[in-house]
Sequence to fold (229 residues):
Amino acid sequence: EAQVTQNPRYLITVTGKKLTVTCSQNMNHEYMSWYRQDPGLGLRQIYYSMNVEVTDKGDVPEGYKVSRKEKRNFPLILESPSPNQTSLYFCASSPRHNSPLHFGNGTRLTVT
Amino acid sequence: DQQVKQNSPSLSVQEGRISILNCDYTNSMFDYFLWYKKYPAEGPTFLISISSIKDKNEDGRFTVFLNKSAKHLSLHIVPSQPGDSAVYFCAASARRLSGGSNYKLTFGKGTLLTVNP
Fold:
């Protein structure tokens, strides 16, 4: 089944403890992106990747890092999480940029 | 500054009737528009899209209308079914501008549609 898989689905952590949210797609998509969804703010782009080893900042990149060493994986790294990063995170991919995005099922992160 | 606006947080309709979800945008560079549907505990799912060169696109029970002069688009669902109950997001991008760079979707805040049996 074609899908975007995120792990974990739920995560509660404490301020400053590094964490990684994994994202993997099995559709051989070139383009991948991370979004966060917050009440009253909709979905906002954090980082994106046009292809392997090509990544760049979206609208709200502060406090996040990403890497794209392989086509299928696009992990989101929070080096020192803070409470304002408590949010619902979505990974998405598409065959190429300018195609509709396929989203994962989300990761709900709580930072205390 | 919210570039994509969905002014109705919620909408309730009867099964079999038409559902009309509205979306307004402010950025005149947007030329590609999409609707996504989202169920609880799932990610958004692509529903239908429309390019700015068209004013209507239809896919089964779903039709999207685009009024460029008014910077307004709407999604019509006919007939509405209980399984259509979900949050609907309108999204837009500037494909002409993005070229070889970022393809970013700008999302509205969503409208919760409830279809009552």
About this structure: The longest strand of chain A covers residues 42-51. Chain A touches chain B at residues 4, 31, 33, 40-45, 48, 50, 56, 58-59, 90, 92, 94, 97-106 (CB under 8 Å).
